[in-house]
Write a structure and sequence with these properties.
The structure is a homooctamer.
Chain A (H helix, E strand, L loop, with lengths): L2 H12 L5 H11 L2 E2 L4 E2 L3 H5 L5 E2 L5 H14 L4 E4 L3 H8 L6 E3 L4 E4 L11 E6 L5 H13 L3 E5 L8 H4 L2 H6 L2 E6 L5 H6 L6 E5 L11 H8 L6 E3 L5 H12 L3
Parallel strand pairs in A: 3-4, 7-8, 7-9, 9-10, 10-11
Antiparallel strand pairs in A: 1-2, 4-6, 5-6
């Protein structure tokens, strides 16, 4: 969206060459791009500080590639797509060879660092187990691409709680903490009780039987006895990364 | 069902050649066709204005083809089957080469326009995201085949709400609006608050984790704070198309 | 909201006495009234053809009375509040003695007929049992207050299906049909198969045990084998009345 | 289990050659056969009138074949296994070539008619749709193998209720009626209201979205407004066949 | 419904004094009585062998009394209402002093024995615990009023299974067995394995915590490893009584 | 149950004065007492080491008093009833003045210590919060009455985990540990990771919103990442006390 | 907890007057106060910046009063209790007359402002409807007592979305936004799309039928298409206030 | 973890060469091994009597192999991994050829018997059906590897309860009993009523339809009328084995 275009419209309206209705409609339309199957929200960067991120699940390879290309050309910031299967990544990379694919996080991205990262406001990503790592990586990489300093520490679940306490210093130093845990999700409560910083809890679908694909951890985190734990959707590492970044970029 | 046959039976009854019981049974039976695995409801067109539509899920290729052929020969209107896998479509088209298969909507149909379409009573189909398009297409194509003028507008979800408002005029012009949305399904409520026309909400199974395959959007739509939103089963684009058509054909 | 005020603002803007931002904000604010605990939406009548309806559940007596009075003075149409307990009705009627309270429907209203009712577009409200009557009355009264001709027919559930068929003619004559049913909610499907008109199904919380307060009927109606049945929230007679009225008022 | 063996033990006990404890244990053990992974209940025929039926799901091919062989040699009645995949059927038929496999019902059986069937006590199996046929076949074949006269009538669901009424005579003639229906399962209630005979309702997993794999039909059937409908587990045609047979064989 | 009236209509139709449509409508209407809030199904006795039973939950005292009186005068059989609160019973008894109220079963009835009871076809009602007795009484009294010989045996749950086996003889003698059990509902499976007769399982809402008001017993009974167990809605003793009576009255 | 009676029957059988069937039936019957609404299981003490415990919920005051008196006279061990409301306790104490009522645990009991308690096998009962105390007391008192040494420690939940670690020594010394916790139930997992002893987890209904009356804690405990945690029903302190006692009395 | 005491223990240990084990245990114990039914966590203020807050639900009046008094004397900051019924508030105020009770928020507190509030970091609390106000007030008051500048804006739900847009400026100015909404909870998604700041969503139990006491809004918020929305437990205004305060106090 | 290292650190601290903080951190860290994707808990053997067990689900082949090797070299006890697919077992066995793979139990292990097994404290594992055997084997093998004497008895479900009673003696002899059952899970209650020993109930996902992948059996076991039944997660044979071993190793 070019500023000149906006000014042109405002001028036209003031001169009476366009009705109020026409002007509002035109200005609105300028802020996104209609490519038939999608309305790319180029305005999002202005409203939210980061361009639209492609959620690839349910999109065809062609759709994802098309949107990826548009975002690359319209924005100066990093461009990323989440939940990208390996074949789709290859398909996009045919025309965007500079794109990097992180197989664990299932994120395809082109990194373009446009702002300095504040190294004192660190985001710490913890997992209860090894199996929670993919979700944690999605969170960590998202936060990094959005301009944050990120640390990780995996497999510190409560069944051997001394492993967690050994990381007490890192927990104290973090500005925001993300906890990814499946099964009974108890790690969020324990960490929530150890720090005055915001804790973002991501239930994972790790577990079986009565974990009901993450429901168990989700309910546990919503009912955390440690007050003020922010809960995300099951396996939603991306959302956790975004929220951590937003918190990190408050005044 | 031939009219003469009906008259013959009525005559026979009045003359005492048949008991009341025999007559009722015969007349009822005439209205459908028993082909063993199915009782084709040829009467439906009379009762509902459109012949029976084949729901292909759970039917074998042979069963679908057989019913398709019977409907083609018994009705003068368009014939359609929903939830048709690509192989089944090919199988039916071997003997019905004029049938068209819409792969996105998964509908196989033979179009036979028998009535003029009222262009002033337009049905508008909106989706929250790109991934909701298959459901929207099922709704749109169904409504078209049942004799309605249909417009579509995809990917106008509430996270970038200016995209929706840019379509305010189309929303105002529509006689009925179908909203297909997954995740939190909020689009139905926002649209419901913008218009005096009936809004039909179709929750889709798009989402992950605690969307529970569409349950999240379904509950949201049932609880819409915008009064009078009609809710359909999850992913039931077909039902939305039928309801929109029925509304469009009221007095 | 006075038209003059709107014009005044538009004029001011064109003359440059107000910025675009100021103008938009002012015009928006004019369309509702901020009374602290509520933002009364006086604009709704323009957008939706009927003023805001008060949903009394969760509101104090004072809040309901206050909003009722504001709506009475701002609109020329009927004013109504739903889910009103008997004491709250008495409390409001102290200052609005002309208000009528329907105890079965739990609706408090002041009727002001401002438009002629189209008697040929009749809405028919059916119930499966006697216990579903309160929900049906909420639907019927809502539709009446919104300017529709309404008929009712109670206790025609499927366990004695001849009772339903005796009303076949009324079903055929109706322009829209509302079905309120609890337990297994089968009535909606049977009626849906008998007519080409839109059927609005309202599950009620009538039943016990595995009816789970209406869940059983809700799921049944969402899965109706009769295509195009519009489903409402459990016990939401009000919503059914609104939708029926909206359908009745399409082009 | 040989009668002589039982007598021998009883004698031994009376003579004081065996303690009470030993005797009871031995007699109990005789009534089943321990083959390691299973304890075949040869006593069931005496208690229940039909030998143990093999539920093949979760069993290996070897286990099913082994049990099938033992039942064939121990009982004089028909032998059957349910939920048999096509490969497993072939595997068993290698050594039991006289076994018949019904692919729709997924039942493998050897029929041995040992009693006369009472043709006046007929069991009628109805389905709401074509997709419910596999469940209905499991029920019908089970009842037949257990010595009952069975009729079937498919695709008579409530959306075109005249198809059902055309079969009113058969419904009246049946001694027991089995109704297999998915989606909203309304057929059971309608049939339940038409007859004084016991109705056995089998919810099927046919449907999608909010049918939740048969939950919708299950709840509907449990809440049937027609009193005295017997409900089975989802897709449990076998159980329906057994219950119908038991009812047919009461005094 | 008077036979003469039926004949009169049939005659009128044959003579051409009435159209087919008029005749069918009239005959249908004759079979029930429209009293505004209810359509009393006087035809039910003909279809099902017992007049309509009043389900009092959700009905007002006035409604229940009115229907009770109508049934008393139209039928010659016993009349009964279920789920009757103690005050409603008193209210009805003011005008029907001969009515008896069973407080445990919460049934109000007037007994009129019109047929001989077959003492050899006994129905046995078992409960797992003392708290299940109200449901069992509803079942037993219902079956009795419908003309069956009924025995009861309470508190024979599986935690002390010798109590059950002491009643083995009664179980063997019964023609139909009703099992009312809450908590884990295991009694139905054990009894189901002991007899060749039909077993009707009624889950009760007895239990706490994860019994979820009877869901636990309901699911257990639906999944019974004893084949052919008929399951009722939670606490639905009435339905169990009706089904047992229907089974008892098959050919 | 008198030993002499048993011997008498055995003798009678050996002499041929009674058939096997008669003998087994008689011996079985001796082991419980039929008082109409209940079959008191006097045999339980022999099988399980403790007499039947009265679960008062769903029983009338009369029923509870009657069973309490029978147990007092038949057993020499402590007698107890759980879930006893305060009025029922008073009613029983009218005739059993020596009975003690613990209002927090809602247990009514007569203590009769018949065996020495093993002080080295201590049971430790922990709670996450103050609101979990009633459940913990039910567990502790049950275990005490069954002859165990019990310690308690309340309000040591994970949000301030140093409170728990201060009790590390007691945890190490315990032979069995009971953890009562609501909300997210994380305490069970943390304790489970600190000890080699069996941990019994009792979810409580403490919490609100998405705790769903204890479901949240229940699922968390079932999914504990600490292996071998035994889970009880929600609020089932009694069951936890019984299990702890059983574990304490293994070889 | 006095610093001198800590030093004394460290000294003792270094001199060998205490073992490591004794020292650790003593230091831990110092950080909380054992009053039998509760272990008051005086250490929490050091770890989390605010003293323990009393959750009154499930506590007796005596317990709440006792803990309130201890916190008042041990901390210099504000003291508060949530979910306090009106009678409990009166009971505590008998001995703490300076305590203030907010009846809408159900919070009892003594305000002691010990730090300057940063007026530029404002927290904005929005509600969808009037009925959501109690939850919003709990959030707002909590955040205020924890030292934050808080603004509120009620009844700006999406069914009349212009009411929300009129507050666009306040939304842009806020540092953190709390959204309390019941029914379909769509407000959180719309607000989430309008700002780059963290949005905290609190589902409320406002609604009926298929809102299932807040489940509908909870699922909707977890599935928000606006990325990075933090979700709280149903009706958990307190948690939202704490999280907002934590975010506001990051670096 | 070498004892010398611990002593060295304690010495260093006493001499003032290390601060308290440094010492605690170091000692903690020593107790586990950080290999990036996992923090192996070498301390677990000291706390719980058995080294960490690898839960292979969700881990890559490389991760499992790496941890397996580390555990083999750090512990002298048996090493085991659960939920191991056949290919992963082969992959690990390439470098650990002495490892044994039990395909039914899906456990990979190296057995190293370091303690004498107490043959008088036997663990008995029962299953209701043949399909429950894999879960039972996981339980049995786990208990064996942890140093217990284990007996098994399969297919003794309640539908043919004499099969169970034939094993009464083994049940009486066992010190702990594990019951694995799917469907309605009734076996746990019956066994729980037969013995004074602890019963561990493992619901299995065996069943279909309304068994909801084991939910039915899970709820049944939680609501067992036999007091003191310990419940495990669905299909969690491993947890049952661990708990049985812990009970067997109490004082």
């Amino acid at each position: 969206m070019h500023k000149e275009e906006i000014c042109a419209w405002l001028e036209r309206y003031r001169k009476g060459e366009a009705t109020l209705e026409e002007s509002v409609a035109s200005l609105s339309r300028m802020s996104y791009e209609d490519i038939g199957f999608a309305q790319i929200d180029h305005h999002r960067e202005m409203r939210q500080g980061f361009p639209e991120v492609i959620y690839a699940e349910g999109k065809t390879q062609e759709q994802t590639r098309e949107i990826f290309l548009r975002l690359l050309s319209e924005s100066k910031k990093s461009v990323m797509a989440t939940r990208v299967p390996v074949e789709m990544a290859a398909y996009v990379r045919e025309v965007v060879p500079e794109a990097v694919y992180d197989e664990t996080a299932r994120i395809l991205y082109v990194r373009r660092d446009t702002e300095a990262v504040d190294e004192t406001r660190r985001i710490l990503v913890l997992t209860a187990g090894t199996s929670d790592i993919p979700v944690a990586r999605e969170a960590a990489l998202t936060a990094e691409l959005m301009g944050n300093a990120v640390d990780v520490c995996f497999d510190v679940g409560v069944a051997g709680i001394h492993r967690l306490f050994a990381h007490e210093q890192e927990i104290r130093n973090a500005n925001v903490i993300i906890v990814a845990a499946g099964m009974e999700g108890a790690l969020a409560s324990v960490v929530g009780g150890m720090t005055a910083r915001p804790v973002i809890a991501v239930p994972t679908s790790v577990g079986y039987g009565a974990s009901f694909h993450g429901l168990s951890a989700l309910l546990a985190m919503l009912n955390s006895c440690a007050a003020g734990v922010a809960v995300m959707n099951i396996d939603n590492g991306y959302g956790a990364g975004v929220l951590a970044s937003k918190i990190n970029h408050t005044r």
